[in-house]
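Honest question from a wet-lab person: if I give you the sequences of every part of a complex, can you actually get the arrangement of the whole thing, not just the pieces? Trying it with mine:
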Amino acid sequence: MGIQLSEHQKKDQAAFREFVNKEIIPHANKYDSEERLPDELLVKVARQGYSGAILPEQFGGRAMDYITYGLLNEELGRGCASVRGFMMMQNMVALTLLKWGSEEQKERWLGKIASGQIIAAFALTEPEIGSDAMHIETTFTDADNETYMVNGHKKWITLGQIADLFLVFGKRRGKLSAVLMEKDTPGLTITPLTGMLGLRASMLAELHFDNSPVTKENLVGRVGFGFVPVGITALNLGRYSIAWGCLGIGQACLDACIDHTSTRKQFGDYLKNHQLIQKMIADMTVNLKAGRLLSYHAGHMQEMGDQDAIMEIMVAKYFTSKMAFKIASDAVQIHGASGCSHDSAVQRHLRDAKIMEIIEGTSQIHQIKIADYAYREYAG
Ligand SMILES: Cc1cc2nc3c(=O)[nH]c(=O)nc-3n(C[C@H](O)[C@H](O)[C@H](O)COP(=O)(O)OP(=O)(O)OC[C@H]3O[C@@H](n4cnc5c(N)ncnc54)[C@H](O)[C@@H]3O)c2cc1C
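Yes, you can. This is the full assembly:
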C-alpha cells in the first residue's frame, strides 16, 4: 500500500503545519511549565475548525476524512501533545454524541463544541479503576422519574479544570452507561491535579459526584451502552489520535536531532559523522516510516468503515507510542545536557511520549487485545 495524499489533503497538511509552527511551537515549553493552555489558543484552535474536525458541516464541523484528521493530529502532536489532547477530547466527545446521542443532544451540544463555545471532557477512569473499566463504581440511581442521582469519583480527567460538559461513565442497575453532566451540577466538586510527568498543560482534574442530579434526557444511547458502543467509539478515536500524535512527537525529535548533529562538533567532527549517532538516526527514521504506514493503514480502514479498523488502530497506537518514547529518549541522548534542559523541546517530548503508553489503554492492555486477535486470526 502506498501513501498518496490528495491535493486537498496536501493543502490541509500545509495549513496545519503553518498553524503549528506559528501558534504552538514557539510557546509549547511555556504551556508545559505553566501547566496550562491559554484561552486565546483554545479559541484559535476552535476557529481553525479543529475542535469539530470530524463533525459534519451541519453541526459546524470541518467534516475531515480520517487521513486528514490523522495529519492534523500528527502536526499538533509535533508541536505540543497537550494541544493535540485538547483537540482530541473535543472530537472524541463530539463523535460519540454524533453516533449515540439523541437528536436533542446533538442539536444542543455539537455546534457549541465545534465552535469552542464549550469545552468537553471524557470521564471514565476512577481512583480504584483504570484499565479494568468494566468495573467502574460510579452509580446512576433514580431520584425520580425524570432524574438520575450520580454518585462516585473520577480521576485523571483531561481538561477537567476547564470543561463545561463531561461525558460521565457509571453503572445504572449494574449496567455500564454514560450521561452528560454540566460543570455547574449541584454536588459536583472539581479538584485540579498538577505536577504530572507529561501532558502537563492538559489541566487534569479529579471529579467527585455527591448526589449530583442529571436529567434522564442526558443519558447517551441506552442503559447498558456505556462501554460498548459509547465508550469504544470515543476510545477508538482517541487511540487513532494518539497513534498519529506519536508520529508528530517522533518527527519533532528526529528533526531536532538532524539540526543538532549537523551543527555540534565533538572530537573534531560533527556529531552526524559519528557512526553511533547515525545508528540512532537510522532507527528513528525506520521506526517513523513503519509507524506512519500503520497509521495510514488504520486510517484507511476506518475511512472504509471496516470492522477490523478497531484492531488496526490498536496496533498503530501500540507501535507508535512505544516508538515515540524510544525516539524521544534517543533524542535526549543525542542532545546530551542541552536535551535535559527545561528549555529544550526533546525533554518535553520524552515526558509526553511516556504518557502515550498509558492513556486510552496501556501498552499491556493493547498487548492482551493484540494477542487475542492473533490467536483468533492465525490459529490453524
Ligand atoms: C495525563 C493523563 C490524562 C488522562 N486523561 C484521562 C481522561 O481524560 N479521562 C479518563 O477517563 N482517564 C484519563 N486518564 C487515565 C488513563 O486512562 C488511565 O491512567 C489508564 O486507563 C490506566 O489506568 P491506571 O492508571 O489506573 O492504571 P492501572 O489500570 O492500575 O494499571 C497499572 C499497570 O498495570 C498494568 N495492568 C493492568 N491490568 C493488567 C493486566 N490484566 N495484565 C497486565 N498488566 C496489567 C497496566 O498496563 C499498567 O502498566 C489519564 C491519564 C493520564 C496519565
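Two things worth pointing out. The beta strands are 120-123, 139-142, 147-157, 165-172, 175-182, 188-192, 205-215, 265-266, 269-270. The chain has twelve helices and nine strands.
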